[in-house]
Amino acid sequence: MKEGESRKRKRRRRHNSNSKPQDQESYQSKSTAKTTAKKHKQDTVKNNEHHQTSAAASAKRPKPSSFLDKMRARLSGGHFRMLNEKLYTCTGKEALDYFNENPALFDMYHSGYQEQMSHWPELPVNIIVKWLKDHSPSLVIADFGCGDARLAKSVKNKVFSFDLVSNDPSVIACDMSNTPLNSSSVDVAVFCLSLMGINFPNYLQEAQRVLKPSGWLLIAEVKSRFDPNTGGADPNKFSKAVCDLGFAPVSKDFSNKMFIMFYFKKKEKQNSKSKEIEWPELKPCLYKRR
Ligand SMILES: C[S@@+](CC[C@H](N)C(=O)[O-])C[C@H]1O[C@@H](n2cnc3c(N)ncnc32)[C@H](O)[C@@H]1O
């Protein structure tokens, strides 16, 4: 071997032992990579476990509604409040024309109404159902402003259900101040939160017409509408007006926080002289934004 060549080799060996050899660097990086990969694998397993447990937990939790869902709910809540106010501030005839033009608005009103009712601890319709079950199933009923006809679906009695729109073959669509029933043909007339129109006395007049003598008149209304301290009607004045129409008072129930109940019976004999009845104004029941 030539002298110069051996010196060159020695220098190269020295250089290699001082500086970080390429292979070592790659070994180290390979080994680091292996450890990192192992750690990553462990982390991934941990993460997967975490994801699985949190996925299971979130499956149990009710899904948080998206912004879009919230906006939709807000919008439909707004539509409901607008329709509700409309029903309380127009006549039955106007309400009938309004929904006839756009029956889809009726569904919108009712889904909002169901939402509101879901916050009530007790529904007045259930109190009426219970009352009916305590009486003879042979009594014929007229449900004025029946909504989804829950009453008819809950009892054995023959029920004529009336509302502005009919989404069910059992519901007769009409303005309830003018039903197709014969005079003196039913035993019980029910108004469950349905004295909405500004001409509500016409609805009660219609009930008086279709009820048999001694027939029952059951009225459930939102309590605030009969609270004189907050601009509501005086319940005694309301009772007096109903009596002037040809009914006798049987009882009142103020025990519920949300609604009150009036029970009347149609008088056997009606006054031949019709006198001017002083009806108190019934303020609208406007629902707050939740
Ligand atoms: C607040 S909801 C109550 C529905 C049902 N009675 C209940 O308790 O679930 C009042 C209902 O009365 C109906 N209504 C209001 N005015 C009416 C009228 N003039 N003729 C027929 N239905 C009427 C409305 O369309 C609505 O369905």
Describe the overall structure.
The chain is of the alpha/beta class. The chain has a domain of 145 residues: Vaccinia Virus protein VP39 (Rossmann fold, 3-Layer(aba) Sandwich), CATH 3.40.50.150. Helices cover 47% and strands 16% of the residues. It is built from nine helices and seven strands; from the N terminus they run H-H-H-H-H-H-E-H-E-E-E-H-E-H-E-E. Strands 3-2-1-4-5-7-6 form a seven-stranded mixed beta sheet, sandwiched between helices. Helix 8 links the parallel strand 4 and strand 5. Helix 3 crosses helix 5. Bound molecules: S-adenosylmethionine. The site of S-adenosylmethionine has 19 residues, from helix 4 and strand 2. Its main location: nucleus.
Task: Record keyword descriptors for this entry.
alpha/beta, Rossmann fold, seven-stranded mixed β-sheet
Largest sheet: 7 strands, mixed
Provide the gyration radius in Å: 37 Å
Secondary structure: number of strands = 7
Task: Find the CATH topology of the domain at 122-266.
Answer: Rossmann fold
Which blocks of ≥5 consecutive residues have pLDDT under 50? 13-59
User: In one word, what is the shape?
Assistant: globular
